[in-house]
Amino acid sequence: MVKKIAIVLFFIMTSCNFEKPTQFSTEALQDTLYDVSHKKYSFQQVLEQYKGKKIVIDVWASWCRDCVRGLPQLKELQRKFPEVTYLFLSVDTNVNSWKRGIQHYQIKGEHYNLPKGMKKGALVDFLNVSWIPRYVVIDENGKITLFKATKASDKNIEKVLKNS
Description:
alpha/beta, seven-stranded mixed β-sheet, 7 strands
């Protein structure tokens, strides 16, 4: 019985992701993104454009009901923290659907597409994206201050935006 408990505890401890990284991996930074004009960037190039600013990353898709439901709360964050850069990373595999979603839902911010979608790619692997929406906050120094939030209304988002 003790051996079974030890095995179960080992499995739980090794399968859960307790890591809360403060920096993106080299592989994630090298992942490819496209802007709405279909210009190719590495994730690192995108982040460098906003160096010195706080960034809220929203990993979303036009087909995602929870993503769309969270937009009013995200727009409220934008109202409360207008100095923050809002970086929308879409996992839509259909580029036209992604662009229509931006227009239809009137999403203001910086928009990029992860062309491999939610199941593949170094950045989605690094973020361990198994559900969207997913929010990540980066401070002015490029440090990840909030690694995982699944709702725009998560109080931790506001907390790190105020404190960092």
